[in-house]
Amino acid sequence: MVTGKSRRWLLALCMCLMMMAMMPTGIAAVAQAEVAIKLDAKIGFEGSFKETGLVPVQVSITNLGADIEGDLVVTAGDHNASTNGVAHYQPVSVASGVTKQVTIVVPGHHIQTYTHVSFMQGDQVLAQTRVSSMGYSGNTLMIGVLAQNPNTANYLGVMPRDVWTKNVKVFPMKPELVPVSGVQLQLVDMLILNNFALDTLNAGQIQAIREWTQLGGLLVVAGGPQYKKTVGTLQDLSPVEVTGEALVQTFTALQVEENALELTSPFTVSTGTLKEGKVLAEENGIPLFVARNFGEGKVLYVAYDLAQEPLASWSGNGRLWAEMLPNAFGSTLFQEKNYQLQDQVWPLRRASEQIPSLKLPEVSWFALLFGVYALIAGPILFFILRYKRKQNYMWVVVPILSVITGLGIFSFGAYQRGTGISLHQAGLVELNNSGQAKVSAVTAMFVPSSGDYKMIVHGPGLAEPSLTGRRSEENLNLWSLLDVDRAELNFRNVEFWSMRNVVSQQYVADTGGFVSALTYSNGKLKGTVTNQTKYHLRDVRILAGTQIQDVQELAPGSSVEVDLNYAPSAQLLQGKMHRISSRLVPQNKQTGMRYETREELMVQVLEERDYGSYDPSLASPLMIMGWTDQAVTEVSVEGSPAKSEGIALVKAPLQVKPSESGEVFYPAGSFDIIKSGNTAKLEEVPNGYYMEKGNIAFDIDLRPNGEQLEISKLYMFTWSEDSAYFSKEIYNWQTESFEAYENVFVNNIMTGDKAASYVSEAGILRIQLSHDADDNRHLGRPLVSVEGKVITR
Hints:
Elements: H1 2-22, H2 25-33, E1 37-43, E2 48-50, E3 54-63, E4 68-76, E5 86-94, E6 99-107, E7 115-121, E8 124-131, E9 134-136, E10 141-147, E11 168-172, E12 190-194, H3 203-214, E13 218-222, H4 227-231, E14 240-248, E15 267-274, E16 278-283, E17 286-294, E18 297-302, H5 317-329, H6 346-352, H7 363-387, H8 394-417, E19 422-431, E20 437-447, E21 451-458, E22 462-465, E23 478-482, E24 486-494, E25 498-508, E26 514-521, E27 524-531, E28 537-544, E29 547-554, E30 559-565, H9 577-584, H10 598-608, E31 622-628, E32 635-637, E33 645-653, E34 663-666, E35 672-678, E36 682-685, E37 688-691, E38 694-701, E39 708-717, E40 727-732, E41 737-740, H11 741-744, E42 749-751, H12 755-758, E43 764-771, E44 777-779, E45 783-792
Parallel strand pairs: 2-9, 5-23, 10-11, 10-12, 12-13, 13-18, 19-33
Antiparallel strand pairs: 1-3, 3-6, 4-5, 4-7, 7-8, 14-15, 16-17, 17-18, 19-20, 20-25, 21-24, 21-32, 22-25, 23-24, 26-27, 27-30, 28-29, 28-31, 31-33, 34-45, 35-38, 36-37, 37-44, 38-43, 39-42, 39-45, 40-41, 40-43
């Protein structure tokens, strides 16, 4: 009996030892090192972040032990696994007794309910903490504020919903959260500088603000007594040259319909001269709100300190800004920004995997090989062994011959695929009118043998692995390091003869552009387009609405003559790439079955942008597209001489200049279109509104870049993705009443003699649309184009 008890105790002890041995090593490591390394982490801005943006993860590392080096790792998922398969890391070293601050930028879609921050050496976890956070959808306007007072501009978060339909999140931004890359600053949609010492930021951070604005950011620079220290070296971005200060007794220009503002004492504002842009409000000749374009972004100058009382706590402040921001930033304010690189890149990924050097062997070679094998293994071998009376050897010779044949096929395949790493890239280059380009690319890496590989994407920007859902991604086999001038993607445990993909996005300033000398007259576009990019283009297409001109080749420095018909009504179809995509694919690359060749797949990227977000008011009516046979993003593999080959689609908008007689054509998209009022309940979507019964009014600003136009013809088109009917009215500024659209426009054209009545002195054309149906109806923003002359600048 004693022996039985001993056996039971021994069995229990063995089971305990086995359970301890089976415990994850990471848990044991954490327990052992808890007293040496302490981690404290915060995600985003006080725990808030935008799911479609970039998210800073701030980590405080306290070392209570000896000097140590390792990796700081951010993962989303359970304890030591990541549900998205990616570990974002940063190498760090921490001296004994020191607390170090580190920030890692992580894509918002990689942040989940369970997000862990770990300090690791190799595969051993020395310390770990779990962080909670709150994510906001892509429709949220994220506003960062650099200001002395942390409560500055809080009223932007409570703008009245009857005027403002977009969700807003305002947060004070610490200087250390400002990255040194304009691309990484995309963690915010709008940035406010108010009573802030700009020189507390380093040169890289200040340059990042400049780049971010140029790439499409919305910057607000506030004035008042502290304006010069606030704007600092960003003065050239401001639309106003500030020269001094003044005291005002009233703010008549800032009154809203309710809650009148009363000043109990003189209020300090900054004064100066207008450099360029549009004055939105002024007081006694002093510009209070002025907006201008800067690259693809916009800058709003405000002449006072946003935290100064009594204006800061004025109950009408929210309504004032709800009306002012659309006037300043236009439709850009309501575009849903999405920085998820994985979106809309599947066609690029499939194209990148079509590596020309990895062609399959010809079927005829396989047929010949198997024919020879069948001939030898069948009649030839049979007759030889029969002649030798050794038929029983067939059981040995045939399997040996099969093995030799299999090895031959394998060797032939290895020869075809090569013995080195292959890189192939499919890219999309989108140039703007500022000499910059947004370069999106997917690079495929083919490896001939198993192991660990590190891909390096050179240059500032974003990069991450393109996930496939394979089982190897369930564990931490993908490690990502996003640095200022490069991204490193570490692929672990890669199988032989397999592929890995990296998707990247960069903004490049030295790509050059297309110089267009085009004029519009009598329904024709004529002139020249010169290629001043570094790309040698083939199979070029010049698009004017639905009209296309083919150009076989356009080398750097060369020009082409343009002669195209162009009707303003074609603007209704602009941007609908699936209507014309087949014409963008070269004839010799069309298979008859869609999405087979690289070119067919890459055009699919443009087509997919239509679905769910088609908006002709944001599409360029005149553009050039062409193909280049080269990689557009520099990618390398550590320890390998492999150079990336590739293909890219290059596209850019073209400009129309005044003709010799001074006539100019402004296509749709040239004018800011702002919702100025509504009685209908609205749901705002990226390409317009869904509205219940009632009306909505739009103000169209016919002063592009502050230019006053003499209108010859004004074309207006309204559209709805569900073809819903709306009644339309145009506002008469002289009678101060709306009139039927049909009384003003004939065949969607208003002649210049009517402009005095229907275009205000400030250059505003107002249209009101309504319906009385019981269901919600979609309404896109109107399309307005103008023929005329510029009379003042």
